[in-house]
Amino acid sequence: MTAVSIEEYPVADTTGGPYAITTGPDGALWFTLVHSGRIGRLAPGRQPTTWQLDPTCGPTIVTTGPDRALWFTEYRAHRIGRITTDGTVDEYAPPTPGCGPFGIAAGPDDALWFTETTTDRIGRITTDGRITEYPLPVTGAFPSAITAGPDAGMWFTLHQANAIGRIGMDGRVTVHPLPTQAAGPVGITAGPDGALWFVEIAAGQLGRITPDGTITEFPLPDRTSRPHAVTVGDDGTLWFTEWAGNSVGSATTDGVIERYDLPTPRCEPHGITPGPDGALWTALENGHLARIAPVTTTRPR
């Protein structure tokens, strides 16, 4: 088993709710505080800074846009937000009210694409705030996380429809049902092998789908761990959070899985990202960010 060191850094009180995390264009970590309605920034080795939004807006996923600003979803306020690295905030309301935006990611077309969980739509927003919505061919699907694929399309999880979806730049949607029933896919990312990787929170599995729709599933050691988010480290290793397992896991592209317990009980890890310092960072709902780094051992000569 690969040895890692895990350090936790407080960024909010226990009610703030760190949820998603990404590395920004300024070499700092940016994160959402879903319960307190804040956006946070942490440069490794320094103190965190936060910006207050509407306290009830529920900021969820955050990502870097093509304009070098941070873009985020406001799940409860039904808005898309933008914050510059100096803290200037703008907010945009999609045309469909009550849409519950959740996942957001930059596309290959210099726009941001996002999911609308409650209205079965995928949204697209340009950096000047123009929004287009595309209906999905399924109902009650709860589209969740979204990422840019290797094929100039956007790939997303359909949590309640038990499927993975793809939308092209022309708005055409393809849906790929999962082999495991009621698997509940949530997080998704583009892998280093030309495929998309996702986690199945209800089935306790890691999944892989190729651009042609071939799906492979890898059961986790703890099927009750409720994996939530997934990303790719600088070395091409896949990393994911286990929300109920109080741990993070790693996987190779051929499905070799390892898991690492987090030091604080019931810390509830959610988002995970490669950091600016070569380590992995995850947002813990207990008010901390955790840094996970491989430990290099030197053999005696």
Task: Please explain how this structure is put together.
This protein has two domains: 1-16 and 220-301, 6 Propeller (Neuraminidase), CATH 2.120.10.30; 18-135, YVTN repeat-like/Quinoprotein amine dehydrogenase (Methylamine Dehydrogenase, Chain H). The protein has strands at 4-10, 18-23, 29-33, 38-42, 49-52, 59-64, 70-74, 79-83, 89-92, 101-106, 111-116, 121-126, 131-135, 143-148, 154-158, 163-167, 173-177, 185-190, 196-200, 205-209, 215-219, 227-232, 238-242, 247-251, 257-261, 269-274, 280-284, 288-294. With 301 residues, it is mainly beta. It has no helices and 28 strands. Strands 1-28-27-26 form a four-stranded antiparallel β-sheet, with no helix packed on it. It has a four-stranded antiparallel β-sheet with strand order 2-3-4-5, with no helix packed on it. Strands 6-7-8-9 form a four-stranded antiparallel β-sheet, with no helix packed on it. Mg(2+) binds at residues 268, 285. Its EC number is 4.2.99.-. InterPro entries: Vgb (IPR051344), Vgb_bact (IPR011217), WD40/YVTN_repeat-like_dom_sf (IPR015943). GO terms for molecular function: lyase activity. It is an enzyme of class 4 (lyase).
The CATH topology label of the largest domain is Methylamine Dehydrogenase, Chain H
Overall shape: it is globular
Tell me the total number of β-strands: 28
Distance between the termini: 23 Å
**Widest sheet, order of strands:** 1-28-27-26
Report the average pLDDT across residues. Answer: 96
Query: Helical amount among residues, as a percent range?
Result: under 10%
CATH top level of the largest domain?
Mainly Beta
